[in-house]
Amino acid sequence: MNCPVLNLFAKCCCSCGMVCPYCIQLTIVVIAIVFGALVAWKPKKTIDIQIALYRPFNWKLEPISMEKEIRNTRIMGLAVLIPGILSLIYILLT
User: Fold this and answer.
1) Helix (H, G, I), strand (E, B), or coil: what is residue 8?
2) What is the DSSP string of 11-37?
3) Residue 84 pLDDT > 60, yes or no?
4) Which residues contact 83 (CB under 8 A, 6 or more apart)?
5) pLDDT tens digits along 14-72
6) Regarding predicted confidence, which is higher, 82 or 15?
7) Is 94 strand, coil or helix?
8) Where are the beta strands (DSSP E) in the chain?
9) What is the C-alpha R_g of the chain?
10) Domain ranges within the chain, ordered by starting residue
């Protein structure tokens, strides 16, 4: 299989229903990049989702300082996004 975009699947050896380690690594890296980008881009929405997830367990989650929480959430998203991009570059170049 040859992919016209950077030969993404040139190293793919998936066959007979078995998924190769290259495709697993590529999938995990893409998920990390998407997740990191969404958290860095929409930190307030991420915090609201977390609050909504804790509500059914009868926990009230409320940050002391929303500005600090938004800043820290954005930093956390970048901390996932940057290694994800570096991992993608490493996977594609090796």
Assistant:
1) coil
2) T---BTTBPPHHHHHHHHHHHHHHHHH
3) yes
4) 32
5) 777 787 888 888 899 999 999 999 999 999 999 999 999 999 999 988 889 999 999 99
6) 82
7) coil
8) none
9) 18
10) 43-94
